[in-house]
Amino acid sequence: MTQYESIIGLETHIQLNTQSKIFCSCKADSWLDAPNSNICPVCTGLPGVLPVLNRKAVEKAMLLASAMQAEIQPVSFFDRKNYFYPDLPKGYQISQYDMPLARGGFIDLPIPDSTGQNTTSYTRRIGITKLHLEEDAGKTKNIGGERQIDFNRCGVPLVEMVTGPDLRTAEEAAHYLFRLRQLLRWIDISEGDMEKGHLRCDANVSIRPVGVDYLNPKTEIKNVNSIDAVRDAISKEIERQIRETEAGQKIEAWTLEWDEDRGILKKMRSKETEADYRYFREPDLLALRIDDAWQNEVVSIQPELPLQRRQRFMNAYQLPEYDADILTSEKKLSDFFETATKAYPGDSKKISNWIMNDLLRILKDRNMQIDQMQLQPADLVEIITMVENGLINTSTGKSLIEKVEDSHQRPSEIVRSENLTRVSDESAIISACKEVLAENPTEVASYKAGKPTLMGWFVGQVMRKTKGKTDPEKAKEIFETLLH
Amino acid sequence: MITEELFKHLVDLAALELETDESQYLLGQMNNQITAINELEQIPLDDDVPPARHGVPFPAEISPTLREDKVDVYPNVEALLNQVPSSEDRYIIVPDIPHTELK
Amino acid sequence: MGICDLPAHQIAKMVRLREISAVEVLDASLDRIQQVDGRSGTLNPGEITNDDKQKVHAFISITTDLARAQAKAVDQKLAAGEDVGELAGVPVSIKDIFCVQGTHSTAASRILADFISPYTASPVNRLEAAGAVIMGKVNLDEFTYGSSNESSAFQPAPRNPWNTNHVPGGSSGGSAASVASGEVALSLGTDTAGSIRQPASFCGVVGLKPTYGRVSRYGLIAFASSLDCPGPIARNVRDAAMMLKIIAGADPHDSTAATHPIDDYLVSIEKNIKGKRIGLSPDYFRITYPDPVSGSFQQQAVTHEIEQPVRHAAEVLSDLGAEIIEDIPMPNTRHGIPAFFVISRVEAASNLHRYDGVKYGYRTPIQTDDLRLMYRRTRGEAFGLQPKLRILMGMYVSAAQYSEQYYMRALKVRSLIRQDFHEAFNPTGKYRLDALLTPTTPTPAFEMGAVYGDSVMMQYADQLTVPANHAGIPAISLPGGISSTGLPLGIQLLGPDFSESTLLSIAYAYESATSGESWRSSRPKVLS
Fold first, then answer.
1. Is the peptide bond before C156 cis (omega within 30 degrees of 0)?
2. Per the CB < 8 Å rule, is B102 touching A256?
3. Per-residue pLDDT tens digits for A350-364
4. Which of A228, C132, C174, C217 has the smallest count of CB within 10 Å of its CB?
5. B29, B41, B77, B80: best mutation site toward chain C, by most C Cβ within 10 Å?
6. Interface contact A41-C356, CB threshold 8 A
């Protein structure tokens, strides 16, 4: 049987997180708003209206271009892409066609192996062929043979970023989106929430026998709007194309739509694939000029990028790839780690462990972001140092993180005011242990009759008596002597 | 010359439905206009002639600045919705677009 | 002569001095409309009667209530001693291609017949802020696509006040007719290929197409967005200057509204024109057009009757101290129409995409479960022939396989046309002109029905006006005489970018110097 490889290119649409829309002053974010409420004559295409470009949208697109190593063009143009669709009120989309905001660019995508430890198996360079600004369309929904249209989304600023046909598996496509989403949040140009449509994706898919270098006709899957959907829809389409090809059918350049709820591909009945958009320069806008001064001003605020920082954490702090990956999943988390580790003379891995084991769990439990925490990097370092100095035990240290959140006090203040310093007086521990044994004769009997697992329970009782200040290892030692 | 077939394609692209007599008039007029515009092909054009998007060149000193990213809520949304031919619960309603499902 | 025949600047002055109230001016204006306009254009006019044929029919909608409220507001402000603006109480008509909040804004098309605009166009806003009284929306060719007004979906179409068997010109025909017949003192028109200047010329009034970007297009229902210019139509140069001063300037709603400073045009017009260099070009004394039968191109000199007012104006200006330079080569003038056929159609087809029955305006009453059928029927039923023709031509010349051959070429030809003007106006060049003086139109107003239907010949009526649109430069049409058949003849002045001040000063000098000439006493027949 013929072996096939798949050739995948992704066209992503990224909603920029500006306050207002790209060509009018309507609020851009309509997540919690009623349909057709953030609209005005401009974004609903009334007769006679004109677009006025939002400076911030240009600047955010410049940041992405620079992050993708793309070349920002000193002069670019807006064009009209003409087609009829009910979510497109003007009957054309203002986009950029042959003179886009940026050209070229790439991202080196680390593709992990299957161990689940985020260990890189290989790196795939994904080229960017085009990066341009455009306006979003509205939303349509099918309701029993009718379409409902909501224009709230019309005119939300979008960057369209198109990759070359450089991806080879559905998994790689999913990783590309994952890394892109991370980047967008990192440089603060988009919330990148796929469920809310901030990041959307069309996938171009074709297959060919392994070893050849020609390209077969591709299909375009529209509307794949989660990382799982990208993986599923592309896998399904690859399977379909192989099946059709094996059955002697030709693959035609169809436009398909992914129905996420039902997990199926639909084909539009129209001849939309033949669309001639009749692009021409948008006469209502002037050329977009970006001089060096503006570009430098905007790009100068660009932070170190996530994959660079990931690598640097591995090199500078000798972190395992797994740790570096998680610590750089978000910029603020990585900043927290780095501030803490710089203030801590010991092993960075220790900071990493505290963050990954404890801090992230608490953030998840409390549904918080790292920058919403009371706990500052210096607090974490203080806690770890107190544990290391034997001033408090580990469990007290961990509980301190939550106490800082609840009390808004610094760790050392809490230790002082709640008298949490470790009980190191051995006689005090011995008397506490003796009390426990005296109060629980039944358990003592069971233990002696051959139930060693009760040791943990005894230690727990002592911890309770001493409000957690006892070193559990010490208590265990004493119990073993007493019960011998 | 625009053939009947090309004309039909253009009518389709233009989302128009035409009466027969309209079609005849329009096709005839289009071919007359093409005679006129074919004159363009006779004009000698040097390679360095730039296409003019506007007559006025709009140098930077007379070009307006871009808009600042500030929300300004449009106060008359209901008047916009009042113009909609068919609506329900604030949604605009149109007929569906037929499609087929793939196995 | 009554209030209605006074210049706008004089009406405003009298209102400000409280010699007359704005409401009195309004009533006089309504009386004049009553006297000469006949019934307003409607979608279902029935038979056009002989009585209809004697009337002007400039209006689609007369906004009496709005006008009365505005006039009263002016009078109240005056009574309270408040500032009322330069156009206090002046009756103004608005070409129904501008959106005005709360009014039917139709573009003279069935597809927008029921559209009530929720916002007001920027130039209209500025007129209102200056105290103008908006009398209503005046008729035009459907979506401005024409040079006669006959293509309006709202009939009876406007007629020429000088002879109602003739067209008023177009597309700002209702504007020019309403000003010429004294229904209003000023009108806001638009000019894409000559749509202000040609009807101004046909109706014997002043029409100014400003530099592209001088006046905001926000709220102007677009025809060809890279060419459209709003501008004033008035009965004299001073009124046109006054109106331009009010509507000109940058606008946060229009990215192409230039930030170039605005002159005080009322001061400019008084300037001496001594030493101004004014050119005449042989390329504006002939027209080139395709023979309707053979399709081959014919070149024909304009008639003596058309040329004579231009020669006369040159003499007058020369006597005033201007320098007349003959034989200015403008070789690309003849290419204006073919290039316009391409550029304007591409932009028009795109601009008309939004009329699809989804959001506003007409939607086919025929129920269908297929969206595309809804589009086709809506557009098929509600667009007239001229929009359909422009959409289809636009589709053709911008289709992927033709756009290089037609569209890109036309844009380059536009550069050539601009280059002609650059050579003529270049202050360090061979000719160093301040203005070019030409006829406005190749013929006086034609009879109704004489050209309508022949889209090619109708377009060639714009041959002498369209180059200014391609080049973006300002141009003004002035009354220059009366034809042997009693119809007005126009002359045109063209100048470099943002030279409105100079054009207005030359125009004003000419108008003042010829004020005593006998043809100036002729009046439109509907007023006799």
1. yes
2. yes
3. 999 999 999 999 999
4. A228
5. B29
6. no
Least Cα separation, residue C166 to chain A (angstroms): 31
Tokens representing residue A118 in the block: 């985020």
- Residue A273's pLDDT band (cuts 50, 70, 90): very low
Only one residue has tokens 């240009």, namely A58
Indicate which residues of C carry an active-site annotation.
Answer: 95, 171, 195
Among candidate residues C110, C115, C84, C73, the one with its CA nearest the CA of residue C98: C115
Q: Are the beta carbons of A151 and B74 separated by less than 8 Å?
A: no
Per-residue exposure over A231-246, b if at least 16 CB sit within 10 Å of its own CB, e if not: bbbbbbbbebbbeebe
Task: Taking residues C320-347, report their average pLDDT.
Answer: 96
From CA A382, how far away is CA B100, in angstroms rounded? 64
pTM: 0.92
**Distance of alpha carbon C458 from the chain centroid:** 16
d(CA B18, CA B23): 6
User: In chain A, where are the structural domains located?
Assistant: 4-298, 306-417, 426-483
**What is the domain partition of chain C in residue ranges?**
337-406
| C residues 386-425 closer than 8 Å to A (CB) | 395, 398-400, 403, 407
Tens digits of residue pLDDT in A300-326: 989 999 999 999 999 999 999 999 999
Is-contact C132 C90, C-beta < 8 A? yes
Residue A272's pLDDT band, with cuts at 50, 70 and 90, is very low
Neighbours of A263 (CB within 10 A): 11
Show residues of chain B in contact with A25, CB under 8 Å.
67, 70-74
Query: In the 3-class helix/strand/coil scheme, how is A48-80 assigned residue by residue?
Result: CCCCCCEHHHHHHHHHHHHHCCCEECCEECCEE
User: Rounded to whole angstroms, how far apart are CA atoms C257 and C277?
Assistant: 29
Whether omega for the bond prior to residue C171 falls within 30 degrees of 0, making it cis, is yes
Q: Give me the total of CB pairs closer than 8 Å, taking one residue from chain A and one from chain B.
A: 124
In this structure, how many other beta carbons lie within 10 angstroms of the beta carbon of residue C441? 29
B103–chain C nearest CA distance, Å: 24
CA distance C307 to chain B (A): 25
Task: Provide, as residue numbers in chain B, all residues whose Cβ is less than 8 Å from the Cβ of A287.
Answer: 53, 58
* A149/C358 CB distance under 8 A: yes
Pick the CATH number of A426-483 from 1.10.3720.10, 3.40.50.720, 3.40.50.620, 1.10.10.410: 1.10.10.410
